[in-house]
Amino acid sequence: MMESKDSTAFGVVCGFRAMFVGEMTSTPNSILITGAAGQLGKRLLSCAERRANLTVVGLDHDDLDVCNRDAVIKAIASYQPSVVIHTAAFTDVDRAESEVSQAFKVNATAVRNVAEACRDSGASLIHISTDYVFGHGPRRPLNPDDPTDPKTVYGRTKLSGEKEFLDSGVAGAVVRVAWLYDTEGRNFMNTMLHLAALHGELKVVDDQFGIPTAAPVLADALLDMAERGTNMPQGVWHFAHAGHPTTWHGFATKIMEMAGLDVPVDRVATEAFPTPANRPSWSVLDGEPLRDVMGWPTQTWIDALTQVWALKQACG
């Protein structure tokens, strides 16, 4: 599902329309998506529309409070999915520093609720995690079994969520991702385009390294995994595009090139933009092991950005 290199790889599904795709029945390809109003949840629903073999339900917070254990059990029992893709999360990294209890409730306790409900119903679970679980590790692509050492509340809550997943004994996978962006919504690409139009110049951090992750490509990858059901790779994995690591400055520069904007992009240090939560200086995840086991072709982050930009242009 990931071999194409143009906008048709995403079926040019413009906007994020449906919260519900197909009639959910207890079949091998029935999928329930939590956090369906979020960036990744919306993209999963859009990508699922092109897969006639899937029946998919997307639930946002108004439909399902994942922090409510009884509500989670009831939802899993009602929809009877074969796979749950858990994207619901507390993702405001800075706000987590002052709302510690709520961040742990959403990113850890809720994972236990979903994992145990899936385990007890026989459903597999794909749980989305983050590069923030790492600290000051080696300056090479990080493997899933590298030591974790989160430096932020957000990172600690997400690592606790991973532990809840693993301790539950549920079948499925934790998939860590970094620097996620898409054609719509609040993300780095759209922020840079907005600021460039507003100010005519950009100042962007150049001492944090990572590999941007295109949400449309990630969504298709997660659906590929979900289609395998209990045969999906088990345990903790990293999803990341190939290619040389870049910085936020490098990413912003490439976005301006794609947009055809002659906007100065100045390099600054992290200290130029103080934030409540410290950002990782090295967020380069090694996606090759998961790519190999799933049989996906190698795709650089620049190729993925080219795809996403074509999709953005096609959708106006």
Describe the overall structure.
The chain is of the alpha/beta class and 316 residues long. It has a single domain (7-186, 213-241, 284-299), classed as 3-Layer(aba) Sandwich (Rossmann fold). It has 10 helices and 14 strands. The strands form 4 sheets. It has a 7-stranded mixed sheet with strand order 1-3-2-4-5-6-11, with helices on both faces. A 3-stranded mixed sheet has the order 12-9-14. It has a two-stranded parallel sheet with strand order 7-10. The chain starts with 19 loop residues before the first strand and ends with a helix. The relative contact order is 0.16. The model is unreliable at 1-13 and 15-23 (pLDDT under 50).
Question: What's the topology here?
Answer:
Layout: E1 20-21, E2 30-34, H1 39-48, E3 55-59, H2 69-79, E4 83-86, H3 93-96, H4 100-121, E5 124-130, H5 153-168, E6 172-177, E7 180-181, H6 188-199, E8 202-205, E9 209-210, E10 213-214, H7 215-227, E11 235-238, E12 246-247, H8 248-259, E13 265-268, E14 282-283, H9 288-294, H10 301-314
Parallel strand pairs: 2-3, 2-4, 4-5, 5-6, 6-11, 7-10, 8-13, 9-14
Antiparallel strand pairs: 1-3, 9-12
Overview in brief:
The protein is an alpha/beta fold. It has helices at residues 39-48, 69-79, 93-96, 100-121, 153-168, 188-199, 215-227, 248-259, 288-294, 301-314; strands at 20-21, 30-34, 55-59, 83-86, 124-130, 172-177, 180-181, 202-205, 209-210, 213-214, 235-238, 246-247, 265-268, 282-283. It has a 7-stranded mixed sheet, with helices on both faces.
Question: Could you give me the name of the CATH homologous superfamily?
Answer: NAD(P)-binding Rossmann-like Domain
Tally of individual domains: 1
H and E string: EEHEHEHHEHEEHEEEHEEHEEHH
Q: What is the CATH C level class, in words?
A: Alpha Beta
Radius of gyration: 19 Å
Tell me the total number of β-strands.
Answer: 14
Total number of helices: 10
Structural class: alpha/beta
Indicate the proportion of strand residues.
15-25%
**Strand order across the biggest sheet?**
1-3-2-4-5-6-11
Largest sheet: number of strands, sense, barrel closure? 7 strands, mixed
Overall mean pLDDT stands at 92
Could you estimate the helical fraction of the residues in percent? 25-40%
Q: What's the overall geometry? A: globular
CATH fold description: Rossmann fold
